[in-house]
Amino acid sequence: MELSLASAKPSPRAAGAGPAAAASTSSLLSAAWVRGRSGRRRGAGAVCAAAVSVSGEEVFGGRKELTGVQPLVEALPPVARTAVELAVVAAAAAAGYGIGLRAGGTQTTAVAGAAVLGAASVAGAAAVNSSVPGVAAVGLHNYVAGCDDPTKLESSEVEAIASKYGVSTQDATFKAELCDLYDRFVFSLIHPGYEDLEGSEVEDIIKFKKALGLNDLEAANVHMEIAKRIDRDAGIGQQQEFQKLIFVTNLVFRDASEFLLPWKRLFGVHESQIDNVMRESAKSLYASLLKSIGRGLDIGTLIEVRRAQLAYKLSDEIAAEMFREHAKKLVEENISSALNNLNNRAQVVDEVKSILAFNGLLTILSKFPGEDRFVRGLGPITLGGDSDHESRVEDLKMLYSAYAMEVLSDGRLDDDKLAALNQLRNIFGLVKYEAEAIISDVKARVRMATGRTGICLAVGSASAAQDRQLQFALVPGRVM
């Protein structure tokens, strides 16, 4: 595998290699990397995003140049470099021996001259050899900085760079560059100031850490160094940055966090404070994810949001409550739209039907096989008990009446219509007698409009008990 590393030439990732590479890089980075990063202004060593996307060079800094003997080392593969070093030593030793003889010296002085020049050449060769890890580190930096999407970096690419120079990935200089790249990457994702996390940070960091070949201890030390650079006394923005780092870091190392991350010892952060940061950060991210769930309740989305909840370590109780609040907001949107269009009966009825359909799906999915895979909190909605229910109850009665008028306008009340009316009563949180009074009033208005003496029942296979329960619709003025 031939790599363009430390030389002045752009890396294959930066320049692109044919139509396939161009098609790949034209994606403008993965969705997790690009989303929301446009136009952000970051501090030193962090991201200063371009108008469209963030490149590796903007995260990791510009390309580094080779100096001194480094260009020679970069140009030679390990085998050729060793051969050249031996040749230089041998040539220098021979030259020193010849000089000693030509100067009229004895064989002893000739050998001494050879030793002097030979030693000098050995020292030079050693100097060349000692610069190899530094050149490899520059090559690594320039290669990663040339990535269109750093999250796509593979461990095989890092290993190929080390192999090109004949160095170990565990070499101190090479390892220091790996840690520096990881530091810059992590810091670029911990958005300074009031910017929220986007949800993909943990996954991206884990992937990048794996590609670099860093173990948990090495990576954890980098996270702690980043934390030390954040001045929590500088203002709320820095405090929030520190909290985001705690959240992301704990999720990256998960079960190993307790012994890898000395938050209390180094920063005086107690376990209760960490628990609070983890909970509130998870709630913030989960709230954003819930926005992807609409009234259609796509199964795939319900599963993905559930997976995210587990990844964020958000408790089922909190997740369920948040979903129920989200579901209520969707219902309230229908209610608001209906109330804003009271002069359009068809639209009002459509909004109520949308509420009933949504509630029906929630009920069905709450009993669906394998529902543990779905978001927590699935089940029928009720607005009853909400703090503002009393102030809104008259509006809800108005909508209930409009829907009752629609379903009873043909003079027929069957099981399905009754079930829908009961379901809507529960959703709106109406007391039973309130709903019955509304239906009685609607029944009277239907009689007046049609001249009928009652509403015809079409109960199908309804039981005798159900027949008696529905008699209120036949007796004028009677409310069950």
TrEMBL record:
InterPro entries recorded: TIC110
Gene Ontology cellular-component annotations: TOC-TIC supercomplex I
GO BP, sorted A to Z: protein import into chloroplast stroma
The protein's name in its UniProt record: Chloroplast inner envelope protein
